[in-house]
Give the backbone structure.
Amino acid sequence: MPQPTLLELSRAGKRCTRAPAGDVSSRGVTELIPAEHLRADPPRLPEVSEPEIARHYALLARDTFNIEAGFYPLGSCTMKYNPKVNERIAAMPGWALLHPDTPPGQVQGALRLILELERLLAELGGMDAASLQPPAGASGEFCCVRMFRAYHESRGEARRTRVIVPDSAHGTNPASVSRCGYVATSIRSDGGRVDSAELRGALGDDVAGVMLTNPNTLGLFEIDILGIVETVHDAGALLYYDGANMNAIMGYARPGDMGFDAMHFNLHKTFATPHGGGGPGSGPVAVKEHLTPFLPVPRVVERGEGYDWDWSPPKSIGRVHSYFGSFLVAVRAYAYILAHGAEGLQRVSEAAVLNANYMAERLRAVYDLPHAGPFMHECVLSAQSIYRDTGVRALDIAKRLIDYGIHPPTVCFPLIVKEAMMIEPTETESKQTLDHFIEVMQTIAQEARSSPELLHEAPHETPVRRVDEAAAARHPKLTWNA
Amino acid sequence: METPHDLRYAETHEWARQDGDLVRVGVTDFAQEQLGDIVFLDLPEVGRVVTRGEGFGIVESVKAVDDLHAPVGGEIAEVNGDLLDQPEVVNEDPYRRGWMVAIRPSDPEEIEALMDAPAYQKHCEEGGTA
Amino acid sequence: MNYLPHSESDWAAMLAALGIDSVGELFRDIPAQLRETAMPDLPGPMAEAELLRHLQDLAGRNSSLDELVCFAGGGVYDRFIPSIVLDVISRPEFKTGYTPYQPEASQGILQALFEYQSMVCELTGMPVANASLYDGASALGEAILVAAAERKRPRALVSRALSPNARRVARTYCDAMGIAIAEVPYVAETGQTDMDALRAAMGDDLCGVALQQPNYFGVLENMRLAAEAAHAAGALLVASVEPISLGLLEAPGRYGADIVVGEGQPLGLPPGYGGPLLGIFACRHEMMRRVPGRIVGETVDADGRRAYCLTLQAREQHVRRERATSNICTSESLCALAAAVYLAALGPEGLCEVAAQGVQQAHFLLERLSERGTAPRRFAGAFFNEFVVDVGQPADGVVCRLAEQGYLVGPALGREYPELEDCLLLVATEQRTRADIEGLVAAFET
């Protein structure tokens, strides 16, 4: 049932928070601020009381799917459990209430945490240095490609203006390439993996870099990664690793060892910081020695007995954030890593991979599995046969899952698989949850055959039925006053 | 899937119809079905000159974006302004009310180089990639 | 500590279903050479109690705003956060949900973000707002890129009186895209952007002009003049604003801004050592399809009920890939939610009160400092709640000394403005009492 908006709840004169009475004997605002700068009328914000605000958001919360309350097998999103202790830590005043311009001598704990986390991430990634500054994965991607550009320009190779991206890549990859003033060249996959011949054909002395994720978005490990890396380096290009899929390989492979020159991490994926409905995230980058001069400024350095900010790195690509990145998100990730230790993180990857393979194995009887395993932390199923036989699409199956209290997997991505459903269970789902999901998916496959209309019109059990997204885009209504 | 026989077709799923001395252009039934609900069209201004195969606009659906390619070269003589408010017309009636632009062709023979209906149908059956 | 929900028998059953003896077999595609060096050298594991002790210990080596009385500004401010804000954003439903791509399952967060957009539009006087960018700095960068795409021109002017951090991030974004940014100086006496210099820098290659209101020095700019100058040259005005000031100050939409950006941290977010933050972005209708980031729209469902969804997604990276308006994916939704709850909690009267108190406390602080003559004001222009003082010696040292006495001031301006090496920023918000102010004034003299 739709909830009224705050504007609809608003009544003139209702109040919630009041500021305490000011205690300076003061002149009024109109005496202090020239009239030409002042608003004629106060902004038209809703006027509501605290109980009404509390209830409003309680009711909205009830209509918001979340990992706490249900299974969320979104491929490449790593929707794992968000540990409570990390929230408790991030709320400590000694972390939350730090002003970014506090003299370094009085935030030694923060500087140490930043430096330590950088080192932990570099170690996990098999890299030499890291920066926590990018506030999300896409920003991390941009940072890495931008560092590639700075590197090539510093060596007189500004002619390198292309970056190769597989057709299975996440959309942020080619978008980040464009944002660096480069051109993205797409290469086709072969059986899901990078086609080496295509790659060789696409390389040239105008290529700055190649962006890969391994395992790729199909959940397949690039078996020939060492060969691929060599080929790319021989062509004078650099390799970037999209760390979105790190959950698959901790303790089993490190991107730096594979030969990648730079990578980013998604703290809000692998390291269990909460997604927040679309952020805040954090996308730290880690690089090999030859790229460290280009990392964003400032950098934490050890100075004497303590830590300080170094503002002077001369070759830095500059800033990508107002301050030091999503610091409170980093605090959570730091705690997560310490809680697990190396063996614990390896176990995380093992459980994630086991869960994904178990699910693929149990569902292959009912859905198409376009590529052979073993899979890593995610797999891609296809509803193509079901579509052909019944007209029911992956999107319909997705919508019907909602009726069963399960969040749909990623559908229609990657683009190279028709009627794709990308499923990443993560390690924090029990076998019982997986078995239930498998049963539901089997039931839905039967429903597709016996009553396809049920699926075309799904969901049925939600506060709103299928939403008209076309109308929203054709006649955009973006505020309550439009 | 509708493929009128009196039209010509480009590999990129635009259709062309000789209309007096103009060539009227839109996207095919195959295209509108692939795109899904069309939500927005970015069409050129009258007077713009395009070459054959050049992008002359953009069609957006909820989940996809595609370029519109001129099946013949020439000057844009007419633009279907109705589509700005009612992009869904392209889904409903792609070959008639869903026309997008009318081009005054610089080479009147160019339209002959396009596929006829049976060839286009075959192209779609084979996957339809340009 | 770990969070794995597998019992030993579950694990065995799953291995059996896969016909394997150990989970390691699932990693067989990974070359042995990589597996050999794969175990990282990391501290831990730690049990929960250990972890808390360690993090508490590290936190104890930081001076937070519980220990320091904050008169520092420059982009992040000490504002009172109502308890209802903290409560709402700590709800696991909001905290642990994903981006609401499946609207039927996420009406709650979608409506909350729609309400946020609506309130941003009310504050800024603009018709379109998005559901957040990373921070005010990246929002400025995105705004200039939108102006460049909209006007199809490659140069922008940015005032030197605009936040240095924002200018740097904008430069990182724009340099990479080949958009040139030229800086406009400020007038030494007033601290305002030099309008003569601005007008002299106009040209038909100009896509946008960016000013901050109040500016980085706290000084109030003549935004109408800037808008006129920009528009006369066929360029757009980008206004970078502080959201709480909009409780009192004219809405940018009313003085001719085409795009409005800002740092939303003061709206219910803790300082957090600088992050996460909240990038505000709003603009006129004409640019709607160029807006970066997520946008929530109102529509209907199959039964005609009001419903919300992410819309205009054709702009975004997951559809448009290399031709997307921006590469942004995850942004700052939970922070936008905090801002929405904050604005709802304050309401129009509360926001005006909070803004006004900051103005009054700041002007009182200046009065007391002026009486003592210890830290004269550097600029003469009218200011809102932030101003620059000259401490007669390198300001870095003064910032450190005052912090040791329990007062946080600054930032010192020397690093970004070498000509202002002896200067630092002071700001007062509704959080500062008369006693705080008297304490700071006294501390300046020791």
